Amino acid sequence: MIRFEHVTKVYESTGGGQDIMALHDVNLHIRKGEFVFVLGHSGAGKSTFLKLILREEVATEGRVLVNKNDLSTIRQRDIPYLRRGLGVVFQDFRLIPTMTAYENVAFAMRVTNIPERQIKRRVPYVLNLVGLAGKAHSLPQELSGGEQQRIALARALVHSPPIIIADEPTGNIDPELSVEIMELLQAINSVGTTIVVVTHERDLAQRFHKRMIVIDHGEVIDDGLARVRGARV
Amino acid sequence: MNWSSFKYLVKQGWHNMVANRLMTVASLGVLTACLVITGIAGILSISVSNFVQSLGDKDMVEVFIADEATEEQINQWGQQLPALSNVASCEFISKAQAVEDMKEEMGEYADVLKDYEGEGNESNPLPASFRIYVKDIALLSQTVNEIQQIGGDMFYRINSPTELGDILVQLRRVVNVAGWGLVAVLGIVSVVIISNTIRLTVFARRKEINIMKFVGATNAFIRMPFFVEGMTVGALAGLISTVLVGGAYFAALKALAQPGAMWLDEFTQCLYPFHVVILPLAGVFVLFGMFIGSAGCAFSIRKHLKV
Fold first, then answer.
1. Residue B216: which of A77, A81, A95 has the nearest Cβ?
2. Above 60 in pLDDT, residue A230?
3. What is the C-alpha to C-alpha distance for residues A149 and A182, in angstroms, rounded to an integer?
4. pLDDT of residue B266
5. Which of B2, B207, B215 sits opposite A111 (nearest CB)?
6. Which stretches of B58-139 are DSSP H helices?
7. Above 50 in pLDDT, residue A231?
8. What's the pTM value of the predicted model, to 2 decimals?
9. How far apart are CA B163 and CA B278, in angstroms?
10. Angle B12-B18-B20 (CA atoms, 0-180°, nearest 5)?
11. How far apart (Å, rounded) are the C-alpha atoms in residues B115 and B123?
């Protein structure tokens, strides 16, 4: 599903200062159906890790493979199709404020040219799945942080991507709601979707007994495969 | 792209126009103003150019032939002169014909020419001549030189309005350069203004564009509503400009149709009738408006697609 092979990412300084090494010789493999936490403090390299998967950035050295696509050689016009195979949940939800909850979710299907008939069937189903069937016509600002995050999750889920990536999904919500969101992700994972949660909340991650990849100063310092019961190495 | 996506994107473009109505009105106003000025400049340029051309058509070169010229020479010149590239027509006026023409001009005093009538009248002081009409007044001086070379001293005098010709040519050139220059400048100004207006809209919606990119939207999908917006504003501006310029043209034609000075009548005759002008005008305005609207859009959105 996701493979990093000796990946190094250096941001070149634009103002004559020193170059920044965001990731250094990272090797990891996330398999189909896994639930993985990527942990690290602020500035550890988590965001770069995510940007490389989304092909927002390109590795300076090494190879990043996502859904069998080599992201260092992928053509510019194929990037949208790569992203359609990834559902992304952001810390700041990134909902369009002028669209209702329904429209925000439907939007992700529309950009992929899915016929309207199918959208009308699928969106209410997904909203129901995240427990927001009754809020379909509410605007994002009329919803709580947790509800907005669930809309964002519904949007990530709606076209059934094989991988869901959540960037600090609990960063802007209460601890109780955080658990709720994580349980929702776990439920999605149980039907075979690969989940990658990027977070700095080690305590929360530890409650779920999943694989934990710890990044610090751009290097993978711990990959908790062994602690996960039944995980393949 | 399937039909439902296409419909959705077109609707989105129109929805955005209404949602950002202040921007829409601003773009519409600017583009309409530019198109109106461009249209007026274009119509004026074409009309004045036509007028100058028509004045040129009336230009006649008179070549006076010395009495010593033989009939054989005259026949030869009668073949050589029409063969010149800028000569539209050439007519030989014999000495006797010249008397007849002058009699006509003199009206009631025609009798004073009675003694000079008739072919081969030795006392007839009027010379035989060629009346030549040119195709392009801009080449008049050169044509006069060529005529002179054909006849040499036997063409003892050539009357041609070369000075007027030069003035008309210059006038036509100035009108063309100024008119089309203005059209070009205003076209560029329109693209820049529309592009800036759309850039503001794009900037206000950069977050939305960013989200679109992350959910897998192609660049074409993201661009489409902005294109629809730009092209619709352009087409609307085109229609409004057609009504304004067409109305002004109609009023001008009506006013010029009143009896006025002779040159004004001649100018009016050079103007295209309203029914001939209105459809091409509408077509050009709408297409030009749509082109400017979409060009402005293309310039402004490119930067935000690099995610």
1. A81
2. no
3. 11
4. 67
5. B215
6. 71-80, 95-106
7. no
8. 0.65
9. 37
10. 95
11. 8
Percent of chain B as helix, strand, coil, to the nearest 5: 80, 10, 15
CATH number of A1-85+161-233: 3.40.50.300
Mean pLDDT of chain A: 88
Q: Which residues of B touch A98 (CB under 8 A)?
A: 19
Contact state of A96 with B2 under an 8 Å Cβ cutoff: no
pLDDT at A136 over 50: yes
In terms of C-beta density within 10 A (0-12 exposed, 13-18 middle, 19 or more buried), how is residue A18 classed? Answer: exposed
The shortest C-alpha distance from B286 to chain A (Å) reads 30
Q: Domains (ranges, CATH) in chain B?
A: 3-55+166-305 (no CATH), 60-160 (3.30.70.3040)
User: Across the interface, which of B5, B208, B218 has its CB nearest the CB of A96?
Assistant: B208
Domain boundaries, chain A: 1-85+161-233, 94-160
**Contact flag A94-B207 (C-beta cutoff 8 Å):** yes
Q: Do A80 and B213 touch (CB under 8 A)?
A: yes
Reply yes or no on whether the pLDDT at B261 is more than 60: no
Decide if B236 contacts B292 (C-beta within 8 A).
no
